[in-house]
Structures are given as structure tokens and as C-alpha cells.
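Risk register update: the risk of archive-format incompatibility is retired. Evidence:
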Amino acid sequence: MIIDAHMHVDDLPALGWKLDADLCIRRMDEAGIDAAVVMTITDWPEVNAKSIEFLAEVCAAHPGRLYAFARIHPWYGDEAIAALQRAITVHGFKGLKLHPVTTIAHPAGTETLRLIRAAAALDTPTLFHCGDEPLTTPLAVAQAAEECPEATIILGHMGGYFHVDEAIEVAERLPNIVLETSAMPYPEKVREAVARVGAERVLYASDGPACSPALEVAKVRRAGLAPEAEQALLGENARRILHLVA
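Archived output:
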């Protein structure tokens, strides 16, 4: 079973943004992917106050194939907490997505930590955009992981292009960090991450449909992992962390 831990859907024609769920499904089928986690490219409620309901409808239309993470702006305090709780307990969302580039909210800021802890209390992980931009580097996100040891913190893109070594280093130091492979271009770093932090803490993802899920699968396979490690990355880890039924 292959599970893509990071894809996007959104529908805001007024802004010229449309990522169709059917396109995600086509890309998944082309790559042999069984299920995927989807999230919007906008933050609730700053740009799209209806994003949670939109995602719930998308996933309901594709049962067993699409699962959702709620992308939420931390600065909305109690409203943000309530939105996250509604997404998880009412709509069955599987986690929280935070993108410090669009929210300008530090990973270890007070309101961000409140959201992370709320997600952890509901036994769901927090996925950060973790790359090369300010506020998103592995060392910045590691501050949140240190403050919330009870939370599972996923480093989406595992440091991007220029901070991959840093991502592996913070994952070695902090056992609640999981590395996620999407849009990080180095197969050898996937292999190094498995060797240094263990296969159980590395997740396959694509950042599709804009990025190619098939290419991202090929990247993991090119890493030359042992069969059981490759299977863990491509599906078993996501199934365990997200509590998915096979």
C-alpha cells in the first residue's frame, strides 16, 4: 500500500487558484498510490473561511482514497483551536498543517504551540512546511518540537533544497520529529535519513498534484532501501501515524 502524505486541493477561482481533487486522483492512479492526505493551499480563515467544509466534502466524495489535514492560521486563538477540534472530531481530519511563510507565525510562537498541543491532545500530528524560507528551517521548527514533546511534528520537504542536513540532524536529536520527503530532490538523503533516524520516522509524500507523485515515488525507490524500509516509507508509517484502516 502506498500513501502520499502531502497533496493539495483548493478551489478559489477569484484568486486564480484551482487544484482539483480529480486531478489528484489521476496523479495517484498514474503512480500506483492507494491513498493520500490532502490540504488546501490557503489558511483558514485568513483566505478561505470555508476551507474545512470544502475539504470535508472532497474527502467524502473519495472515501478511502483522500484524507484531510486542516491548514489553519495560528493567530486566531480560540477560534483556531475550535476550528481544529471541529475538523478532527466532526469531519475526521487526520492532522494539522502549518505554513509559516503564509502566516508569518513562528513555529514556537505562543499561538502556534497552542494549536500543536491541541492536535496532539486529539492524537493527530502537525505537518510543517519545512524548507529554505525564514521561519520554516528545521532549526526553527525544532523549537516547536522541543516545546511540545508529546506532539508528532512532521517536517514537510525535510528542509527543502539547502537545509536537508539540518533536518536530519534535528530529527536525530528530537524523537518526536518525522521527516517527509516531498520536493526534496536528493535520493541519497532519503537513504541517509533512514540510516540515521530509522525507517519508521521517514514518510513518502509528493506535494502533488503540482509536483509529480510518480517522480517522488521513483525518488524513494532510487534511494536503494531494504524492501521493508521502502515499504515503511511508502505506506506503513503514514498508516500508523494517521491511524488509517488498511
